[in-house]
Amino acid sequence: MCAVAGFFAWFVIDERIERSRMAAERMTLRYGVLMVGFASGYAPYGIESDDFNLAIISELAARLGLRPAFFVASGDRIFADLDSGIYDIIMPSVPLTPERQAAHKFSKPHIGNAAGDLFAIAAQKGNDRLRAAINGALADMFNDGTMLKISMDAFGIDLVTLAREQW
């Protein structure tokens, strides 16, 4: 039993070391990889949110000429890991609040809900070029109907028009 626990502890430590190494080597720039911290099954949307977010990131990365690399992130560490450079962006989409907007950098909103909440992709501080590229790709996805199609496929309703109106 101790050997199994030791193996899993080693794996977790090793994964953090690997993510740190990838961040230090700027994998996004050197190897064409978009490093995504992904918190699975994030409320309030549940598993459909995973389908939606994976589709958004896959399409976004393709439009940026990058390959997405997903890392399961701990909800309580996800922003700290983003700020330390382990990820380029984090998903699922983050509800925009004044406190979060003061502390972190976000794309323009790409999803909204009936309550009027807007959600955006959190991006690494200091990487304004990547954030501008993400906003450009999102705008293209809105304009060609891709965002609406992904929303309809994942949720069966339009959750993107409200966000588009905020641009």
In short:
With 167 residues, the chain is of the alpha/beta class.
Write up this protein.
The protein is α/β, with parallel strands linked by helices and 167 residues long. It has one domain: D-Maltodextrin-Binding Protein, domain 2 (3-Layer(aba) Sandwich). It is 53% helix and 17% strand. The protein is built from eight helices and six strands. Strands 1, 2, 3, 4, 5 and 6 form a six-stranded mixed sheet that branches. β5 and β6 form a beta hairpin. α3 crosses α6 and α3 runs antiparallel to α7. The radius of gyration is 16 Å and the shape is globular. It starts with a helix and ends with a helix.
Measured by DSSP, the beta-strand proportion falls in 15-25%
**What's the number of helices?**
8
The largest β sheet comes out as: 6 strands, mixed
Structure summary, number of beta strands:
6
Structural class per helix/strand content?
alpha/beta
CATH superfamily: Periplasmic binding protein-like II
Q: Helical amount among residues, as a percent range?
A: 40-55%
- Estimate nothing, just give the exact number of structural domains: 1
Written as H for each helix and E for each strand, in order along the chain, the element string is HHEHEHEHEEEHHH
Tell me the overall shape. Answer: globular
The end-to-end span amounts to 54 Å
Which consecutive residue ranges, at least 5 long each, have pLDDT under 50?
2-13, 43-48
- Give the class-level CATH name: Alpha Beta
Determine Rg (CA atoms, Å). 16 Å
